[in-house]
Design brief:
Order of helices and strands: HEEEEEEEEEE
CATH superfamily of the largest domain: RNA polymerase II/Efflux pump adaptor protein, barrel-sandwich hybrid domain
Helix content: under 10%
CATH topology of the largest domain: OB fold (Dihydrolipoamide Acetyltransferase, E2P)
Distance between the termini: 54 Å
Protein name: Lipoyl-binding domain-containing protein
CATH architecture of the largest domain: Beta Barrel
Structural class: mainly beta
Mean pLDDT: 86
Strand order of the largest sheet: 3-10-8-5
Pfam family, one: Biotin_lipoyl
Number of domains: 2
Radius of gyration: 26 Å
Largest sheet: 4 strands, antiparallel
């Protein structure tokens, strides 16, 4: 399709109160939508904050010799250690990004985890 025609159509559309315009001729077609024609994105509100695995590795609730049991409903403070992800070269601490209550605990001791996998959900 001719770019000059496309420019003319879009310029014309700006002068009207139309939200969208469709045009077809000789097997070619064009569809132009203004910002008003686009649907509003959905806005969700959630009181849960996900705590994701910082690396690919093995999840441990605590270092060897220490005992840390995390249960749903337990209160945590921002900065509390929720465990570590052990990789070949290093241990990555997992800390609570917010204060609140643990509502969902998906982390399992000794389980492999992927980067970005939600391990906990904290309700603010």
């Amino acid at each position: 399709m001719d770019t000059k025609l496309i420019t003319e159509v879009t310029d014309w559309l700006k002068t009207t109160d139309l939200a969208e315009f469709c045009y077809a001729k000789d097997g070619e077609s064009i569809e132009v939508k203004t910002a008003e024609a686009l649907p509003e994105p959905a806005h969700f509100s959630c009181s849960l904050t996900a705590v994701a695995a910082p690396a690919i590795g093995i999840y441990h609730a605590a270092d060897k010799g220490k005992n840390l049991v995390l249960k749903e409903g337990q209160s945590v403070q921002e900065g509390d250690v929720l465990g570590v992800v052990e990789t070949f070269s290093k241990k990555h601490k997992i800390t609570a990004p917010v204060s609140g209550k643990l509502r969902v605990v998906t982390a399992q001791e000794g389980a492999p985890v992927e980067f970005g996998l939600p391990l906990f959900f904290i309700e603010k």
